[in-house]
Amino acid sequence: MENGEIESTDDETTPPPPTFTGRQYRPVVSHDQVSIPMSPIEPVPPPGIQMKDEGSSSGGAGSGGTKSESKLEFFGKALVDLLGVRDMTGEPAPSSPRDGEDVSITLGRQKQSGVKLGTMMGVFVPCLQNILGIIYYIRFSWIVGMAGIGGSLLLVAFCGLCTFLTSISLSAIATNGAMKGGGPYYLIGRALGPEVGVSIGLCFFLGNAVAGSMYVLGAVETFLDAVPGAGIFKESATPFNGTTEIVHTPNIHDLQVYGIVVTILLCFIVFGGVKMINRVAPAFLVPVILSLFCIFIGMLASPKNDSARKDGITGLKFATFRDNWGSEYQSTNNAGIPEENGAIFWNFNALVGLFFPAVTGIMAGSNRSASLKDTQRAIPIGTLAATLTTSFLYVISVLLFGALATREQLLKNRLLTATVAWPAPVVIYVGIILSTLGAALQCLTGAPRLLAAIANDDILPVLKYFKVTEGSEPHLATLFTAFICMACVVIGNLDLITPTITMFFLLCYAGVNLSCFLLDLLDAPSWRPRWKFHHWSLSLLGATLCIVIMFLISWSFTVISLALASLIYYYVSIKGKAGDWGDGFKSAYFQLALRSLRSLGANQVHPKNWYPIPLIFCRPWGKLPENVPCHPKLADFANCMKKKGRGMSIFVSVIDGDYHELAEDAKTACRQLATYIEYKRCEGVAEIVVAPNMSEGFRGLIQTMGLGNLKPNIVVMRYPEIWRRENLIQIPSTFVGIINDCIAANKAVVIIKGLDEWPGEYQKQYGTIDLYWIVRDGGLMLLLSQLLLTKESFESCKIQVFCIAEEDVDAEELKADVKKFLYDLRMQAEVIIITMKLWEAHSEGPGAPSPDDSAKAFVGAQRRVAAYLSEMREDARREGRAELMADGKRVVVNEQQVDKFLYTTMKLNSTILKYSRMAAVVLVSLPPPPLNHPPYFYMEYMDLLVENVPRLLIVRGYRRDVVTLFT
Fold this sequence. Notes:
Layout: H1 60-69, E1 73-74, E2 77-78, H2 83-89, H3 119-131, H4 134-138, H5 140-174, H6 184-192, H7 194-226, E3 236-239, E4 246-249, H8 252-271, H9 273-300, H10 306-310, H11 318-323, E5 331-332, E6 344-345, H12 348-355, H13 375-404, H14 407-412, H15 416-420, H16 425-456, H17 475-489, H18 494-522, H19 536-553, H20 555-575, H21 584-600, E7 614-617, H22 632-640, E8 649-656, H23 659-679, E9 684-691, H24 694-704, E10 714-718, H25 731-744, E11 748-753, E12 768-773, H26 780-789, E13 798-804, H27 811-824, E14 830-834, H28 836-842, H29 855-879, E15 884-886, E16 889-891, H30 895-915, E17 921-925, H31 935-946, E18 952-956
Parallel strand pairs: 7-8, 7-10, 8-9, 10-11, 12-13, 12-17, 13-14, 17-18
Antiparallel strand pairs: 1-2, 3-4, 5-6, 11-18, 15-16
Helix pairs in contact: 3-9, 3-13, 3-16, 5-12, 5-13, 5-18, 5-19, 6-7, 6-18, 7-8, 7-16, 7-17, 7-18, 7-20, 8-16, 8-17, 9-16, 12-19, 16-17, 18-19, 18-20, 18-21, 19-20, 24-25, 25-31, 29-30, 29-31, 30-31
Main location: membrane
GO molecular function: potassium:chloride symporter activity
Membrane topology: Multi-pass membrane protein
């Protein structure tokens, strides 16, 4: 309907019941059976699968009847509907197969033939290869020599506890539903939101790419140590701690050249896809396990003769164990060779940064989540098994290395593992090289898939080039990862690369722990992880350990990594697309809102804590374009009622009609209204109701809208200026009904006259804001004027308060009282007292409005009221009634009282025109509708009040104060 018309039509004919199609349901009628007869239950195959019907005959009719009777239906819908699984998310339901089983719901589609991995090859082996990397083989004995046995055990326990707690958090999140590609990015993004997920995910991608360069450099360094003649450039020679003994290290240029070549070769393997990697993985892992076995055999069978002691290898002796128990931190050069005036001084904090990459790699399995058969089984078991296995190995190695060789040998011999290995060092060299290359291969495999997963979520448009289709290999992302890896290889210094990797990995681990902490603490109904061995306190401890380790290593690197993540977060929030993932922050906001709502209680809010919560009635008394669901100036005025934009507005509208027919239209209109108020940058929510007419819809809104003390307290609407021009005779009764509903519900009312001329955000206003304070309203009119002054458009205005006083009141005394009251309220305003004598003089003195301004309007109103009264009497006489009726209700008309109301509003209008003709905005008290007066009469009173006033706010408070004198 247009222009606010209210129509009421009664359909005499009942429409036929809707036919059942799709998801519609036939209404239950009186002759329906109470029980539903069901045919015998027979299996129903999903679409696309043919089942042999043994009881069907060869005839077409018999066959068709058998098929229809074999379904178990409930109101025409199959009880077990496989398509319903897909309807929940709009995506194929992921499978959780049993051991050795590969299950998928195909629903008529061909099953994808992609390679799927189990727990061993998909998680445990990649994690083991990443954890058992270069740090263990060529740095671990050096760490024992620098920190001592006690410090090394503390170091392993400290770092191992961090990764163990992170593995528990990872297991809990990974078993809380289906998991797509992206590993930790997918988990963090869905738990903490797309901004946090993308920022930490990109940092983790960089960490994996840089870690690949660390493993490549370790493999090349080992190869050059084993085969010194393979170096292209001359080796570097460094004296050991100021002695004459010379320690040879590979030239940095050899590391760079060989590192780039090895990276390119690994890329070719990665380009072969998951199938190629699975074939190559055992070739890398078996020699590693064999080399570890040879190291332990060599340490247990190490020689104890004099010649071996000269080399510093004492064998497993308690005396050596005792000598190496304490730490001996000292300075070294960039190659790790002790020097008295070395560039690097090592302490426990620095060793944490060097050793921590040796316990990273726990995400290697989750990075390949898209290639796993069953993520909910493989990730927890494989990750925790790899973590516990390597931690136990590190503890045993600390004890054996500490009892095996002197401290000098531990610090000098970077390849002590090869020196003591049985039967020959070559086994260890091969094991080290294959171990590091396997770890590098896992990094070059997981990092591109992580980047592709971020790109596929389409949050950042700049990453669109790295998108891949499901089942395809991320070739472009692999090339980009290889480029980053080669750029870090050019640095050539292993000890400078590891702290950078550590920061990125710790940042990711902290995100995983915080995600689990938040989800576990909120305990939403959707939080049902299969992994039960977790608690929010463990996740909080894990996150705290991650942050502590970051600052222990280097506060400068920590600040840089956090700044990088913050910049990415800010960039995603500005440039990224919204991703509604139902993250944990939304649950936190919900829980916080509930707690705050309960803390507010249902008691009345103290005036110090009172905030306007306007209910903006969007339905205009006039026409708007079809694509504009709310008058744009209503949104501007809603912002004027908030101090610094803080507060909530509720935009409501009513659609006339039947709810069952217009429910979808109401949802669409609500979305459009919400989008529009967001476009107008107005903090608020949108609500649309369907009702037979506007009056009933508004009455339902005013009674039910809001919760507790978060219910709207002010109703804001436009004054119906068009009702007489458009001859809309239904508007008076609707308008008066809305005002009476607000009074009954104890809601304040603000009616805007001249809404089309209301200034925009940047339209500067000058002059005054005039208040005609006639009745006590709890200070609402005063507060509204102060809120208007906080807006840029009204900040240059001044406030004038006009008080209409009785004739026998002392004007000066009243003025002093009002000024004192305003002073105590911290409000600056000029006070003007108008007594009844002055009021009478205004209409006759110089500067009084001309008869065309107020008196002519008064005469016209009297004439229209008399004509309407005559019509009511004629209707009563024609129908044989003694009482008068208006809009279906009994009314009592006292003509003398009607004239008095008309005269009062005319006098107030003439006063406004005299003092406030040039005011920026005028505020006046809203007179309540007189009892038993026809709504048409009240509209005449109001029209006379607002006559010729261009911009007017008609305000009515409610039965409580909204301002206070006290602090």
